[in-house]
Structures are given as structure tokens and as C-alpha cells.
Write a structure and sequence with these properties.
- The protein is mostly helical.
- It contains 8 helices and 2 strands.
- The chain has a two-stranded antiparallel ribbon.
- The protein starts with 6 loop residues before the first helix and ends with a helix.
Length: 250
Amino acid sequence: MLFDFGLFKLSGVFLLVIIFPLVQNQWLNLYLFDSNNLSFYRFLYNFSGILFSLIVSTYSYKNFSNYNFLNPNLRCRKLISGKILFVTVTILLITLSLLISNYLFLNIELVTGLFFNINHNFNLALDNQLFMILVFSVLFIFKKTRQYMKGFIILNFFISSSIFWYTKVNNLQIIDKTLFKNFIELENINYSNILLFGSLEIIFYLWSYVSYKTNLSDWIVYKPIKKDILFIMKILFFYLLIAVYYTLLE
């Protein structure tokens, strides 16, 4: 079965994606009709956006961080090795490192622009970009630092999504100063954020598969089976639900 959701999980997904944004909008309406600026409904509405980002981050950490793949002895004997494996490893590492470095500079620009009114407009020289790619690539190669990097990716998502929520509830306009303008600009800034985070999730999953256990040291990777590919669909499905949530919140 593609999505092994029990009744409890199905109910949780439904509440999160369908009911929660409706409740948030209700809190907003009650807050707008309340003349007291310190309204309890204002607190609920403001906190709910941060809570949602925390829920997504926690789900990602628990479900999309530590992967255990099928024993090689139970797999088909078709292998990926040699030049093809080298190209695969290179593409995955460069893509991962490039995306996360952009995410990092995005958040630096968001934080400094929002709280310190400083516009960095990061445009790294080629040698600096290559240095960042090299550093992040090395960190992704080793299993322990790889998990730290996954936590770093989640932290970046939590920071950016929380800041976007903060700017929404306070009617602040700093989005046009961010790297999203030159990276992945969509009509809803939250879609861009989810697209970036979801892309990192999928590429991290692929890298986890390629670098699983002794694959790199043996320089042999077994071709993925149906179950491995279907898990990518599970990741896509989850972030599609998150995009639906932001659509209903508008």
C-alpha cells in the first residue's frame, strides 16, 4: 500500500490540512472584531502559524531523516557502479549543497532584513560558491554529520516559514528583498518555501539511499526497488498536503 496511514493518521492529516486553517481564519475574524489589542484570539492566531511550522518540522525529523533500506541480499542483483555512480553522487551532492547554501543565505537575509533593516543582497562569487558546495558535500558524506545537516535543513525551514508567518500577521513587506525573488518565485511565498524544502527532502532521501551503509566505500549501489521509489511519492504527497493547507489559509 502506497500510504500506510491508519485511522488515527488519516484523521490527523484531515484535521491539519482541512480544519486547522479554517479554525485559524475564525480566530483571525474574532481578533479583528475585538477592540482589545491584547486579545486572546490574537495570541491564538499568531501562535498557530508557528505551531504549524513546528508540526511540519517535527514530522520531517521523525519520518524523513533516518532511513533504513532493504537488506542488499533481498534486492535484485542489478548494480549501479563506476562512472554512472560517480555522476550520480556528484549531481546529488552538488544539488544538495547548492540548495542548502541558498536556503542558509535566504534566512540570513530574512532575519537581518526584518530585525536589523539590513539588506545583504547575497551574490556569492564563483569561488565562494564552490567553497560552500565543497564544505556541505563533505558534511553530507559522513553519516553523523549528514544527520546534523538534515537537522540544519529543518531548522532553515522552521525559521523561514515562521518569518513568513510573522510578516503575514503584521502586514510587513520584506519578501521582495529575499533570495526567493531570484531563486524560485511563486505567487504565494509559502509555495516557494515548500517547493524548496520538499526538493531538499527528496534529494536528501536519494542521497541517503546512495550513501546507505557501505555503498560508497564499496562503490556499489543496488538499483532501487518499487518500495524505494514509492517512498518518494509519500514525501510528495505530504508536501502537497502542506501546499493545500497554505491555499486554504489564504
